[in-house]
Amino acid sequence: MKKEAIQSMMNPVRLMIMREITKNGQMTTKEIQSACGDISQATLYRHLSDLRKNDIIHVVAENQIRGTIEKVYAIKVDPMTEIRGKVNQMTKKELSDIFSQFIISLLSDYDEYIKKSKSLSALGKEFSMFTTSMFLTDEETVTMIKEIQQILKKNADHDSQPGRRLRKVSTILSTSLDTNIKGEKS
């Protein structure tokens, strides 16, 4: 997967589009717009075009609807699996660029939330960030990641409906390279 494709996927709107298409298998533009909410048609077409240009989605069918062609989209490859599968082939700079893009996406989401929020009193219910440090073996770490993924998948399958708003959960797991941690040999 090209660096441009990875950067393209890190856009919050494109992430939402990919999530909806992945969840549904195939979707028309109209279905995507309905599922994603407040996206103008022009903006949606721009994002779909970028995702197609970067080989993330493709057209799997074209339906004739009253004189116009309605495209049906599907995910071409599972982007996150593709990234994970190629991490060993990436340079440190490419990985750093992807991580930076990820952080920029988080900052952009937060900044947009603060700008649109009428009151910060609800912030405690709608926004959270925390760091927890723990000592885990590699096996315990893998188990924990799988448990987190199961919880997220269970809740990611909810449909958009009144009372539900898009919530974004992002995770970063890092490992200390400090070799003088209690219990380890120097």
The Cα radius of gyration reads 19 Å
User: Fraction of residues in helices?
Assistant: 40-55%
| Low-confidence runs | none
The overall pLDDT average reads 80
Distance between the termini: 39 Å
CATH-assigned homologous superfamily of the domain at 3-118? Winged helix-like DNA-binding domain superfamily/Winged helix DNA-binding domain
Give the structural class. Answer: mainly alpha
CATH class of the domain at 3-118: Mainly Alpha
Number of helices: 8
How would you sum up this structure, described in words?
The protein has 186 residues and is mainly alpha-helical. The protein has a domain at 3-118: Orthogonal Bundle (Arc Repressor Mutant, subunit A). 52% of the residues lie in helices and 10% in strands. It is built from 8 helices and 3 strands. The protein has helices spanning 3-9, 12-24, 29-36, 41-53, 79-86, 92-116, 123-126, 138-156, and strands at residues 27-28, 57-65, 68-75. A 3-stranded antiparallel β-sheet has the order 1-3-2. A hairpin with a 2-residue loop joins strand 2 and strand 3 (68-75). The chain is globular. The relative contact order is 0.11.
Give a summary of the structure in a few sentences.
With 186 residues, the chain is mainly alpha-helical.
Characteristics of this structure?
186 residues, Arc Repressor Mutant, subunit A, three-stranded antiparallel sheet, 10% strand, mainly alpha, globular
